[in-house]
Write a structure and sequence with these properties.
Blueprint lengths: L6 E6 L7 H17 L1 E6 L1 H8 L6 H15 L7 E4 L5 H10 L4 H5 L2 H9 L8 H4 L1 H10 L5 E4 L4 H17 L8 E4 L40 H9 L2 H12 L5 H27 L2 H30 L2
Parallel strand pairs: 1-2, 2-3, 4-5
Bound molecules: iron/sulfur cluster.
Length: 313
């Protein structure tokens, strides 16, 4: 008998166009995961409403672009279940049920609640949906009973809240939800560069070590955002060479940036080409989402059945 594969759940909000940092941080990780685990990857379009409810004009477009990016980057719908949150209404039902049991204080102490309100001062985020989005997030996760969830360090408090909510549900009624573990993403964060538009000309605008003002000044790669790109895109040999030559001013920033920009373009070109092909075939995209949402819905329905049984409703 074969042991079932462990299950992984991850999503992204369609609140803007993907940039290179997302591609490297999340999608490279997802590509590895889909070969090893049973993966559910979803577009969290309802989440985008929590901060963009006043202007929903581009959510559908962003959702579509996000899916195209995933597929172009190598997410394979034959291996992973790729779907859109709003096509699986069970997420909303579980959100409602969990909202009955979560203490408001848990939401108010959420560190990102106040932070994000500060950052997005121009929007009125005094809404129930914004306060409660960690409950929706918990529902998104728990409904698939995943073994683990890939997260960045900044999202750990949210996952902890999901686990607390699972424990509360399990102790109030009966054990339904396993507590999902985190899988920390291993790629370093790079600047918010739009991967779609990145080209050789972009290298001219990249910021370097601020202390290196003149060509003959030695630099410090540890303080330079360009070197972060080298760490991801360049061969170890080149990284070492730049590390040394930067510190002795043997290489200038212009040449250094050109080297990395060439590597980025080389690596991203297949993705850009795949994007162009996928963009021309909306029917194919729709088929993928329909099938993925159907598969996700089957799992979500089974969990909801257990939840209703435990709650005797
Ligand atoms: S040489 Fe390269 S690593 Fe050094 S400061 Fe310039 S751009 Fe950054």
């Amino acid at each position: 008998m074969t042991t079932p594969r462990k299950r992984v759940l991850s999503g992204m909000q369609p609140s803007g166009l993907l940039h290179l940092g997302n591609y490297l941080g999340a999608l490279e990780n997802w590509k590895g995961l889909q070969n090893e685990f049973e993966c559910f990857f979803f577009v969290a379009d309802w989440h985008a409403l929590s901060t963009n409810y006043a202007d929903t004009s581009r959510i559908r477009e962003f959702a579509r672009e996000l899916l195209i990016d995933w597929l172009a980057a190598g997410i394979d719908p034959a291996k992973a279940t790729v779907f859109v949150q709003s096509r699986v209404p069970e997420h909303a039902i579980l959100h409602l049920l969990l909202s009955m049991i979560i203490p408001v204080a848990w939401l108010e102490r959420n560190p990102t609640y106040k932070e994000k309100q500060e950052q997005l001062k121009e929007r009125d985020l005094g809404t129930y949906g914004f306060l409660g989005y960690p409950v929706l997030q918990a529902a998104d996760i728990l409904i698939y009973k995943p073994d683990f969830v890939p997260v960045g360090k900044d999202q750990l408090p949210h996952l902890e809240l999901t686990r607390e909510l699972a424990r509360r549900f399990n102790s109030l009624y009966k054990p339904v939800f396993p507590e999902p573990m985190e899988q920390l993403t291993k790629f370093p964060k790079v600047l918010g560069t739009d991967g779609r538009k990145m080209s050789k000309s972009y290298s001219k605008t990249m910021v370097t070590d601020p202390a290196r003002v003149r060509r003959q000044d030695p630099g410090n790669p540890d303080l330079c955002p360009v070197y972060d790109f080298h760490k991801i895109f360049s061969l170890p040999m080149i990284q070492e060479q730049i590390n040394t030559e930067c510190r002795t001013a043997a290489i200038g920033c212009i040449d250094c940036k050109k080297l990395v920009a060439d590597r980025v373009v080389q690596r991203m070109t297949p993705m850009w080409d795949a994007r162009a092909r996928l963009s021309k075939d909306p029917a194919h995209l729709n088929d993928i989402v329909t099938e993925g949402s159907r598969r996700a819905g089957e799992v979500a329905k089974a969990t909801l059945h257990d939840v209703n049984g435990a709650m005797k409703i």
